[in-house]
Design goal:
- By secondary structure, the chain is of the alpha/beta class.
- The protein folds into two domains: 248 residues, LCP protein (Aminopeptidase); 94 residues, Alpha-Beta Plaits, CATH 3.30.70.
- The chain is 38% helix and 23% strand.
- The chain has 14 helices and 19 strands.
- The strands form five sheets. The chain has an eleven-stranded mixed sheet, with helices on both faces. A two-stranded antiparallel ribbon has the order 4-5. Strands 7-10 form a two-stranded antiparallel ribbon.
């Protein structure tokens, strides 16, 4: 078996792959903002809608003191505490039982001051989430806002983000359903400005900034000045972190930042001082969130969130390629690969991990992790997995990137039991392999 293990960073070793990736990254500069803002929507949904209640579910004294004994939230918290004390039933009991549900998350921006952000606006962020109460898991598909689609009611070919501006949330839901062949059960729409206020309300969050980020947009009033390393960011800085995309690659197709942002955010929610900020958080949520869920539904989903293992969350972007027609740029979806993503993350097709043979892998690593690379390589080879190539990349977070439709989260969980050194890696599904052509998955070893 032949593997190519470089001693140091040499651009020529992967020049063809790097050039291809770099070229595509530059073409997708605009689409990258979709991914960098993904967790903004998910975060607002979790905290603004209901997560705060469930994180503090047993603190009924707090609700009673601030809201009174007869308030619906106080009664809800008391009931939750009783359930947890008597162990008569689980922490959550979704109103529809164990049936999986599809929730569409939409992020919108204002058309200007004193305008309704939920009318006539385009959706900057579109995420389809599949929630499975039985397995306590969530999958998420990011839909590029420039995806070329057919809009219902004879509105013709448009970018998918125009659906909301033309026909509101109803047309957006119908467009996603008809494009992907799925059924949308609920939606949550969030105004982009909520991120800053909610992060400030909880006193900021700790984030490891993976690179120096400097950018000034005077017309758009966006000013970013972040230094690489551990940082405690306020709301304005978090918005800059999520929106930054002005570098060579832009982290195209990766949800790495959102994953680490969410981890820091969840840690901030668990702090006792968050209790005192709850009224302020609720005020922001009420101002910036629109949904067709009832409070009871939101609370039960939030209770489910408490049980989620972030390492088991599977995320993906709809695969495709950029295309420009005149002055209009589109993201052209790849039909076969798009169907694969939907089958995996929404319909959750199952494959027995132990039945797979002839699996090929690549290992990419940042400087200083040579020993870990050798350990992982030996463990994979012991399992009969061929390590096709090993190379050095400039990354700051670990990832397990699946390229083949056969490499599911079930396979990753099985592999972690056999290879404990890769526990805790972020799972990403990316059909296109930018690192080493012909492999089924790539392991990126870097600082966690």
């Amino acid at each position: 078996m032949r593997t190519d293990t470089p001693k140091g960073p040499k651009r020529s070793q992967f020049s063809s792959s790097d050039d291809k990736y770099l070229k595509r990254a530059k073409l997708l500069k605009r689409e990258s903002s979709t991914f960098l803002r993904t967790m903004a929507v998910i975060t607002i949904f979790l905290i603004g809608a209901a997560l705060s209640f469930l994180v503090l579910a047993d603190n009924h004294e707090f609700f009673e003191k601030h809201l009174g004994k007869d308030n619906i939230l106080t009664k809800f918290s008391v009931n939750m505490s009783k359930d947890n004390d008597t162990k008569q039933k689980a922490d959550f009991s979704l109103p529809f039982g164990n049936k999986r549900k599809n929730i569409l998350l939409l992020g919108v921006d204002s058309n200007g001051e004193d305008t309704n952000p939920f009318e006539g606006t385009r959706t900057d962020t579109i995420i389809l989430m599949n929630v499975d109460p039985k397995t306590k898991s969530v999958n998420a598909i990011s839909i590029p806002r420039d995806s070329k689609v057919y809009l219902p009611d004879d509105h013709g070919v448009q970018k998918i983000n125009a659906a909301h501006a033309i026909g509101g949330v109803g047309m957006t839901i119908r467009t996603v359903e008809e494009t992907l062949g799925v059924k949308i059960d609920r939606y949550v729409m969030v105004h982009d400005g909520a991120v800053r206020e909610i992060v400030d309300a909880i006193g900021g969050i700790d984030i490891y900034v993976e690179k120096n980020m400097h950018y000034n947009d005077y017309s758009g009033k966006l000013f970013i000045n972040l230094q690489k390393g551990k940082n405690h960011l306020n709301g304005k800085q978090v918005v800059g972190y999520l929106r930054f995309r002005h570098d060579a690659l832009g982290d195209i197709g990766r949800t790495q930042r959102q994953q680490w942002f969410l981890r820091g955010f969840m840690e901030a929610l668990k702090k006792p001082e968050t209790l005192a900020k709850l009224p302020e958080i609720l005020t922001v949520a009420n101002k910036y969130i629109k949904t067709n869920m009832t409070f009871y539904e939101l609370s039960q989903y939030a209770s489910l969130v408490k049980h989620l293992d972030m390492d088991k969350v599977e995320v993906a972007m709809l695969p495709g390629a950029p295309n420009k027609k005149g002055y209009v740029s589109y993201w052209i979806l790849d039909p076969e690969q798009t169907q694969e993503v939907v089958n995996r993350l929404i319909y959750r097709e199952k494959i027995n991990p132990e039945s797979l043979t002839d699996v090929k892998a690549s290992i990419m690593y940042s400087a200083g992790y040579e020993d870990e690379v050798q350990l992982v390589k030996e463990q994979l080879q012991t399992l009969g997995i061929e390590v096709v190539c090993v190379g050095q990349v400039n990354k700051t977070h670990t990832q397990f990137i699946a390229h083949s439709k056969n490499i599911t989260n079930d396979y990753y969980n099985w592999l972690k039991k056999k290879t404990p050194s890769i526990i805790g890696y972020q799972f990403v599904y990316e059909p296109t392999d930018f690192y080493c052509n012909g492999t089924d998955f790539t392991i990126v070893i870097a600082g966690k």
